[in-house]
Specification:
By secondary structure, the chain is mostly helical. The chain has one domain (about 5-440). About 85% of the residues lie in helices and about 0% in strands. The chain contains 16 helices and no strands. The longest helix has about 35 residues, at about 45-80.
Length: about 450
């Protein structure tokens, strides 16, 4: 079927906005990939240690995604309404809340890392490696959180290139730092896992400093932190902000916990499965961010249309973006099948872990058209429309009532292999697709949150 000219124009607008977001997200996740890859050269125990430690950062990322998504909804709508003061007010409240949450986590992580590690494993070597990594990386959670808010603010106001450039510099710092500090090159000491953590923290510090410098240097930048507007906490607006954002935060945290439970279930299969799961997650995340970048671009456009009171155009963009999301999922799935053998071979693993990783990634690729549709529907449309309570109920119901129980039943009672378990859990995505489609067709997800 030939796509009408206006459809092509809409797709071009979405893709133009999405590409820098995809690349920037790829670079952000690249830091995690580089850490896992380089530390992985130290052996299977090191891979498992950083993998278990990374579960905490995964949960923190879900928290930050929730806060950032909530902030992005408001910033996009304020940008559509050409209200810069509103944008600065959102920036202030989101950064303040982020510092509070990540600060508490960072303190606990630095002082009691072993408590977190023992939730996932009782292997002494893995716990010791994870403890070392968490102690040195804990401080970076606060830095990452603030950078998250600056990044979503810039992207929501159509500046996707600045976060991309900053992430490129941050990744470069991490790669060089890892090389020098993990292996002890030249005058630098050989610090192993600790070196990887220090390098990550340094790259996050550089990233935040660049965000602050760039946004404050531009006098007309809507994301410029303003003492007058950013720290002005209006009770009525704060209530509206948290009413909209809290379901997103709860959603993302418990969705993240659900995925941690998946990995706990998969780990019951055996030590090889635990190592394979970390490699799979690292590679999967690198590709999923392409889909998430696309959904992020859709969310920005939908939010701006709602803020500009162009709700009649929202349904047009929704239909076209959802159809193209399926194509995006097919494309990313093919990339995983073609490229994953190369990526997996980069890790210092035995043949069993290699085969488990490849076969499981194929099962994941098979489900990606549905996954892509769901991410575009939930993140790109429903959340951007302010329908955050419905998305919370939708995601938590499907993952906790369907996905997690199936994972444990499949592993503990049906004794499924790792690839089979990944395929079984895909039933969750099918149910989610059906429910999301019904909500979007109803049109009930469109809410103008900044209209007084």
């Amino acid at each position: 079927m030939k796509i009408p000219t206006n459809n092509i124009s809409i797709l071009k607008k979405i893709i133009t906005l999405a590409l820098p977001i995809m690349l920037q997200a790829f670079l952000v996740n690249g830091v995690s990939f580089v850490d896992t890859l380089m530390i992985g050269q130290l052996g299977a125990d090191s891979i498992a240690a950083i993998g278990v430690a990374a579960q905490l950062f995964f949960i923190i990322t879900m928290l930050l995604n929730g806060i950032a998504a909530g902030a992005g909804i408001f910033i996009s709508q304020y940008w559509g309404a050409k209200n810069n003061k509103g944008i600065q007010r959102v920036l202030g409240i989101s950064i303040s809340f982020t510092i509070l949450c990540t600060g508490i986590i960072a303190i606990y992580t630095t002082i009691f890392p072993q408590t977190i590690m023992k939730l996932f494993t009782h292997e002494t070597a893995i716990i010791e490696g994870g403890n070392t990594y968490l102690r040195f990386v804990g401080f970076s959670y606060v830095l990452t959180g603030i950078s998250f808010m600056y990044g979503v603010g810039l992207r929501s106001t159509n500046d996707t290139k600045t976060p991309l450039r900053i992430s490129l510099i941050s990744l470069s710092v991490d790669v060089v730092g890892n090389y020098l500090l993990i292996f002890g090159i030249g005058i630098f000491p050989e610090l192993g896992i600790a070196g990887g953590a220090i390098s990550t923290s340094l790259s996050r510090l550089v990233e935040l400093c660049l965000f602050i410098i760039v946004t404050n240097k531009r006098k007309d930048c809507p994301i410029r932190f303003s003492l007058k507007n950013s720290l002005k906490f209006d009770k009525r607006f704060s209530k509206k902000f948290f009413k909209t954002t809290t379901p997103v935060i709860i959603n993302d945290i418990f969705w993240g916990l659900g995925f941690v439970c998946y990995r706990i279930a998969y780990a019951k299969i055996g030590t090889e499965a635990l190592a394979a799961v970390q490699i799979i997650a690292t590679i999967e995340n690198l590709f999923l961010i392409l889909i998430q970048g696309y959904a992020g671009a859709v969310a920005i456009i939908i939010g701006q249309l709602i803020g500009a009171n162009k709700e009649h155009e929202v349904q047009i963009y929704s239909s076209i973006s959802l159809r193209f999301s399926i194509f995006t999922g097919v494309l990313v799935g093919l990339l995983i099948v073609l490229i994953s053998p190369i990526f997996v071979s980069l890790f210092n693993i035995d043949e069993t872990v290699y085969q488990l990783s490849i076969k499981s990634l194929i099962m994941i690729a098979f489900q990606l058209p549905l996954v892509s549709f769901n991410i575009a529907a939930i993140v790109g449309l429903l959340r951007a429309g302010g329908d955050t309570k419905y998305t919370m109920y939708l995601e938590l119901t499907t993952i906790w009532i369907v996905g997690v129980p199936l994972a444990f039943i499949g592993v503990l009672f049906w004794h499924l292999s790792l690839p089979q378990a990944y395929l079984l859990v895909g039933i969750e995505e099918l149910l989610k697709t059906i429910l999301a489609m019904q909500r979007i067709k109803s049109g009930k997800y469109i809410h103008n949150l900044i209209r007084k």
